[in-house]
Design a protein that fits this description.
single chain; about 0% strand; DNA binding; Zn(2)-C6 fungal-type domain-containing protein; mainly alpha; transcription regulation; about 575 residues; transcription; zinc ion binding; 22 helices
């Protein structure tokens, strides 16, 4: 059988048509000097070709995009020359031979030191190497994780959650699959705060780490894996949401976390005896140090609940009921490790309702962590007792007087503790970036604020003059304490101290009003200087925590018409 001859197909090449066919928009075979269409008998066209194809005009949008690309290329080239970055081959080799990072010293981490340099490319190399793959990995690379965790630990006191640092570092070095290690959810939470405290360019990764954290929390809860770490991580999510002004989301996280903590029995740790401690859902503590971490977790949640209710005017999740809260006050972590707490008598929230003289069995509770929890409890209780529009019955008057006695005793105890332990403030009391003095400053200021509010309640006409002078002295002590700590290091100041400073501002402002009514202009001018000194502290604080500008303790100061214009401006800022 003869082979079939394949049919020839004319392939038209785009752009090769003659000028005549191009004008008439017809197919052209592009044969020169005259194409097939123009040489047909019925065609009268004179075939010809243009010397070159006219360039196509670019649209304005295309031209703008090309100009933008060229500008970006120039910026990148300039930045690379400024930074003297090695090429990708060198970076790959450096990552392969990267030494171990000292988790106790953030300066040893090259990624963190690079991130602190002001530059168009000040994102750490470690983060630029791991874009979206970070979301898929269960464990973060150490070059990313270590500098972020160190950044968080520098300000851990601002976030209320505390734990034994030696125990944390021991668990931190273990692989995440080890049941003794830290759950990835808690590591992700610390890394998220590390981003929050990092340069602006690094903060663009917050959504990525927030998504990682949500996934880790869901995984921990679904597998009932290290629930104590889940509780601590979820509490940090609450604080993060407050920082980002997602108040409803933060409050939902807090309420759910506290309910879980109550279900686990963290509110009923009445003894350091591991055999009798009733803690459901959680792994039984393997020592006093681990039990101490659980005690600290509960009181951290308690403080977050009280401060968020005070600042955001949300209802508390933990009821103000001595019968409900049975957990003992937190102790120093060294006392848990040494076993000293096993000989301590039980003392908890009920001690805030009656004055108790200290005994050798309760001296273990004289520490900054217990001071903070007590001061926060007293401040919240004072605010519920002293609204000026309420008429007080005999029980309320008795409660106010008792609370004044308890708060006064606590204030004296903290002053004696400070004179003995830290007559001068420092951020490295026991180790670098220690939170000891920061917690003490807040506890003392919160106690001053509680006493000012309690002395504002007119429960005894004969004592009103003495109470007024006492309020003035308390406000001066509070502002002097804040000014001293702020001059040493602003990191010693927790943002929530704003409540105490606004309370002191009100005392000085009322003194200005009183003296002006009496016509004592010189004394009023002196009081106005105290108002201005307090306002300077508030200004410095809201520069670091701008979300506080709109909170009611700050905006409530408009009524004195001293800094009203400035406060109104703050209220309108985004």
């Amino acid at each position: 059988m003869a082979e079939a001859i394949p049919q020839q197909v004319l392939v038209l090449i785009r752009g090769k048509a003659c000028a005549v066919c191009r004008i008439k928009k017809r197919k052209c075979d592009g044969v020169k000097p005259a194409c097939g269409r123009c040489t047909r008998p019925e065609s009268s066209d004179q075939c010809y070709y243009l010397a070159s194809f006219p360039p196509r005009a670019k649209s304005n949008k295309c031209q703008l995009l090309e100009d933008r690309v060229e500008a970006l290329k120039t910026q990148v080239d300039d930045a690379l020359k400024t930074r003297n970055l090695p090429d990708s081959t060198t970076l790959s080799t450096a990552r392969t031979a990267q030494p171990d990072i000292d988790t106790h010293n953030s300066t040893s981490c090259p990624a963190l030191s690079r991130a602190l340099r002001p530059s168009p490319l000040d994102t750490p190399i470690s983060l630029r190497d791991y874009p979206m793959s970070l979301l898929k990995q269960k464990d973060l690379p150490s070059s990313v994780r270590d500098p972020l965790v160190n950044s968080y630990l520098k300000r851990k006191s601002h976030n209320w959650m505390t734990w034994s640092m030696p125990k944390l570092w021991a668990a931190y070095k273990l692989p995440s699959s080890d049941p003794e290690s830290i759950h990835p959810a808690l590591v992700d939470a610390m890394c998220l705060f590390g981003l929050l405290y990092s340069p602006p360019s690094v903060r663009s990764y917050e959504p990525l780490f927030y998504a990682r954290l949500q996934r880790s929390l869901a995984e921990s809860l679904s597998k009932v894996d290290r629930i104590h770490d889940f509780i601590r991580a979820s509490a940090l999510v609450t604080i993060y949401c407050y920082h980002r002004q997602r108040y409803a989301t933060g409050q939902n996280h807090l309420a759910a976390t506290i309910q879980l903590a109550v279900a686990c029995g963290l509110d009923k740790i009445e003894t350091c005896d591991m055999n009798t401690a009733s803690i459901s859902l959680l792994r039984p503590p393997r020592g006093a140090a681990e039990l101490g971490d659980m005690v600290h977790t509960w009181w951290g949640l308690f403080c977050i609940d009280r401060i968020s209710s005070t600042l955001l005017e949300y209802p508390t999740t933990i009821p103000e009921n001595d019968v409900v809260i049975k957990t003992m006050w937190p102790c120093d972590f060294e006392d848990y490790a040494s076993g000293r707490v096993t000989h301590a008598a039980h003392s908890g929230a009920a001690s805030l309702r009656t004055r108790c003289d200290p005994t050798p069995a309760t001296i273990v509770y004289d520490n900054v962590y217990a001071f903070r929890a007590k001061s926060m409890g007293l401040l919240y209780h004072a605010m519920t007792l002293t609204p000026s529009h309420k008429e007080r019955n005999a029980d309320q008057v008795r409660d106010i007087r008792t609370t004044i006695d308890v708060a006064s005793q606590l204030s004296e105890t903290m002053m004696a503790y400070r004179l003995k332990i830290c007559p001068t403030f420092s951020c490295a009391r026991r180790y670098e970036n220690d939170d000891h003095d920061s917690i003490l400053v807040f506890a003392m200021a919160a106690c001053y604020a509680a006493l000012i509010r309690l002395h504002s309640a007119p429960v005894d006409t004969n004592r009103n003059c003495g109470s007024y002078q006492r309020r003035l002295q308390l406000a001066r002590d509070c502002v002097a304490l804040g000014a001293e700590a702020n001059s040493v290091d602003p990191a010693l100041i927790m943002p929530t101290i704003i409540i105490a400073w606004c309370t002191s501002y009100e005392v000085f402002a009322w003194e200005v009003v009183r003296l002006n009514k009496l016509g004592e202009s010189d004394a009023a001018a002196a009081a106005l200087v105290e108002v201005e000194a307090t306002m300077n502290l508030i200004r410095q604080l809201v520069q670091r925590a701008e979300s506080l500008k709109k909170k009611w303790p700050v905006q409530n100061l408009q009524r004195f018409d001293i800094h009203k214009a400035e406060l109104v401006t703050w209220s309108k800022q985004c």
